[in-house]
Amino acid sequence: MPANKTQYVWMDGKLTEEKNVRVPVLTHSLQYGSGMFEGLRVYETDRGAAIFRLQDHVKRFMNTAKIYSIDLGFTADEISDAIIAVVKKNALLSGYIRPFAFYNDTQIGISTFGKKVSVFVAAVPFGAYYGKGEDAGIKCKVSSWHRINSLILPPEAKASGNYINSILSSIEARHSGFDESILLSTAGYVAEGPGENIFFVERDKLITPPREADILLGITRDSIIQIAEAMGMVIEERNVHREELYTCDEAFFSGTAAEITPITNIDGTKVGTGKVGVMTSALSKAYSDVVHGRNKEFASWLTYV
């Protein structure tokens, strides 16, 4: 978005200019990581802007609030309407949408009882997350940090504090000269990336870790599984041993921000030939067709603005 263009956001039921929103530094969610969020993309299509899987993202937003006993004060329909309103007000054809809920309270202390909850929605231009595009792969490092599990924090909730785990692993990877990290579960199985699910190709089978591997149940992950099934691919959801990272034929991350990001090197070992694989490329093209409204089979996933 041009620097001189007014950015509009939605805050506690009202559209307003972003510059009008002020949050105190002592806000509970800034001190303790008690906020929660979602991430959606809006894509340009022949029919205009379309939000991808809006209802599914809002449902997960509501589920996160339920897990953390946060009373948002708004219904799922009201949150959906807010998201649409922000995209429309900013005349955004393509970009990223961030709904966010937080305890807007400056009292010191971890208790959340009686604290005010604010809900915020922003929508901004956003390109390729890793800045490399679908034809270039990234290098990943298996992290020494393990993925959180349900004995520690609920991995299926998109809560702000959960991502400190991800940040640590990502910092370690970058310091070691890699683009990103891959986290293992506490049981030693492959879990996911810091903010992405992960897929592998072995002998023409598409493999992804299951719910039991302490993963976030990604909406992009689910989309890829359904698209792959429609393409006739064989899919397995199963535990993946670390050594399979080094012997698989292809690998890629999936996520709202990452979309489909090929992984061509893990821990210094080439994935397959070290180039973007055939199945990864095919899925990336198919996914692009879906989100840009070029595939009628999955047209119900798009909400036109």
What percent of the residues sit in helical stretches (DSSP H or I)? 10-25%
Ranges with pLDDT <50 over ≥5 residues? Answer: none
Radius of gyration over C-alpha positions, nearest whole angstrom? 19 Å
N-to-C series of helices and strands: EEHEEEHHEEEHEEEEHEHEEEHE
Overall spatial form: globular
Number of strands: 17
Mean pLDDT comes to: 96
Which structural class do the helices and strands define?
A: alpha+beta
Largest sheet: 9 strands, mixed
CATH architecture assignment of the largest domain? Alpha-Beta Barrel
Structural features, described:
This protein has 2 domains: about 10-125, D-amino Acid Aminotransferase, Chain A, domain 1 (2-Layer Sandwich); about 140-290, D-amino Acid Aminotransferase, Chain A, domain 2 (Alpha-Beta Barrel). The chain contains 7 helices and 17 strands. It has helices at about 30, 55-65, 75-90, 165-175, 220-230, 245, 280-290; strands at about 10, 15, 35, 40-45, 50, 95-105, 115-125, 140-145, 180-185, 190, 195-200, 205-210, 235, 250-255, 260-265, 270, 300-305. The strands form 2 sheets. Strands 8, 9, 10, 11, 12, 13, 14, 15 and 16 form a 9-stranded mixed β-sheet that branches. A hairpin with a 2-residue loop joins strand 15 and strand 16 (about 270). The model has no long low-confidence stretch (mean pLDDT about 95).
In short:
The protein has 305 residues and is α+β, with helices and mostly antiparallel strands. It contains 7 helices and 17 strands. It folds into 2 domains: 8-124, 2-Layer Sandwich (D-amino Acid Aminotransferase, Chain A, domain 1), CATH 3.30.470.10; 138-291, Alpha-Beta Barrel (D-amino Acid Aminotransferase, Chain A, domain 2), CATH 3.20.10.10.
